[in-house]
Design brief:
Number of domains: 1
Helix content: 55-70%
Mean pLDDT: 84
Low-confidence stretches: none
Order of helices and strands: HHHHH
Distance between the termini: 69 Å
C-alpha cells in the first residue's frame, strides 16, 4: 500500500476461522484473548459478528478440563462421606 491508501481487505468466514485456528496454535489463555482482540480491530462490523459467531461456536466445542472431569459431584461426595463409596 502507498501512503494514505487505506483499503479494507475483506475476510471470508473460512479465512477468519483459519486465522482463529492459527492464533490458537500460537497463543494460550490471556495471550490468546489479546491476540484475538488485536485481530478483531482489523475487521469491519460484519466481519466482527462472524468472528464472534465462530468464537461462540468453538467455546461450546472445548472439552472439559481434566480437573472438571475428575471433580466428584456433590452427590458422590455425600455418598463417600457417609461411607457408601
Amino acid at each position: 500500500m502507498r501512503g494514505g491508501d487505506n483499503r479494507h481487505v475483506a475476510w471470508t468466514r473460512d479465512a477468519i476461522a483459519a486465522r482463529v485456528d492459527a492464533l490458537r496454535a500460537e497463543h494460550d489463555g490471556a495471550a490468546l484473548v489479546q491476540a484475538v482482540a488485536r485481530f478483531a480491530e482489523q475487521l469491519d462490523d460484519d466481519e466482527r459478528r462472524v468472528l464472534g459467531d465462530i468464537l461462540l461456536r468453538r467455546a461450546g466445542e472445548e472439552p472439559p478440563s481434566l480437573a472438571e472431569v475428575r471433580r466428584p459431584s456433590w452427590f458422590d461426595r455425600q455418598l463417600r462421606r457417609r461411607g457408601y463409596r
